[in-house]
Amino acid sequence: MALSEQRINELLVRDHERIRTTLEQVESMSDEAIGPYFDELCRELVHHETAEELTLYPAFKEHVAGADSIADAVSAEQDKAEARLAELAAEDRTNPAFRQSLAVFRSLVIEHTGHEERALLKVLETHASFDDLVEIGRRYEAALGAASQDQQLDADAVLRIDHRDALRDAMRQAVARAVGASRH
């Protein structure tokens, strides 16, 4: 897979917008149609969150002195949204309460992505060089590329802890390969 020359902030803002749009689309679907699209949303969110965990947060801590508390707070928000996603995946999608839960989840995601863009990406952009931002972007893309084997999994499967651990390991290996390739 050829990796782009985009900076991490460009990639994440693009992905955040796609996630917000996908959430809006899922919310507008009928109960009968929502299943596969909700599964896709879960896959996309799990892949995105895991890639951030492996690339963005460590890079932020590396480039911004004393930034651990900021990164940890944004990571805790992400953990809260992830737990809510698991609860949402377990709900009956034909129950009207699912729609209410989905709206609450969407609000959490919008709040989190906005906070991440303001608190992490803007600050990182002022502390890391252009080349560093591109390298972090390559690592992020490599991590996402490692998740391509998940494309057929449903929400329940992609949210299982054992699967998340295996996914995290595959993404870590892909990031390590990307780091090694950029040093040659």
Structural class by secondary-structure content = mainly alpha
Number of helices: 8
CATH fold-level topology: Four Helix Bundle (Hemerythrin (Met), subunit A)
Low-pLDDT ranges: none
SSE ordering: HHHHHHHH
What gyration radius follows from the Cα positions, in whole Å? 17 Å
Through-space gap between termini: 17 Å
How does the major sheet shape up? none
> What general outline do the C-alpha atoms trace?
globular
Q: Helix share of residues? A: over 70%
Characterization of the model:
This protein is mainly α and 184 residues long. It has a single domain (8-182), classed as Up-down Bundle (Four Helix Bundle (Hemerythrin (Met), subunit A)). It contains eight helices and no strands. Helix 2 packs across helix 6 (130-146), helix 3 packs parallel to helix 5 (96-127) and helix 4 (68-90) packs antiparallel against helix 5. The model has no long low-confidence stretch (mean pLDDT 84).
What's the quick description here?
With 184 residues, the chain is mainly alpha-helical. It has 8 helices and no strands.
Index terms:
184 residues; mainly alpha; Four Helix Bundle (Hemerythrin (Met), subunit A); 8 helices; 81% helix; globular
